[in-house]
Amino acid sequence: MPTNFADGLNQDTRAQVVDLLNENLVNVINLTLAVKQAHWNLKGRGFIGVHELLDDVADRLRDGADTMAERAVILGGYAKGTAEVVAEQSTLEAYPLELSEISEHIEHLKARFMEVGKAIRAAAEVAEEAGDEDTADLFTEISRGVDKDAWFIGANAEGA
Asked: Ferritin/DPS domain location, by residue (predicted)?
């Protein structure tokens, strides 16, 4: 591993947490791309509000991905977020390419946000158990944002 900038964590803990960060990084990048896919292609009543919301959501997801990637490097690892790694390692189902109805995009995005939020909360628990409270806090912060965006998106659903 490259240089470590977080003193007080042993090598095994750092390696475990770097892997955890990268596992979640690929899903957040994948989710960001799904949000942009929806942003570009959605049509229907309420278009402009959802279209603009999704730009803001993508920005927040990119910030979360950046935070996870930087933490991996701080711990002496490598951030692994290339398109090839995301395509190979993301656990999210492929986003449908030929959707246009806002309601369909909302359902697909909400499900993915729920899945990513759950995984990030689980990662927070693992990081805490490993002894890295800072990374656990980082995951907790990111999960709150993912949950909030799941709400922002899901609240646009019929009958929400």
From this structure: 19-155
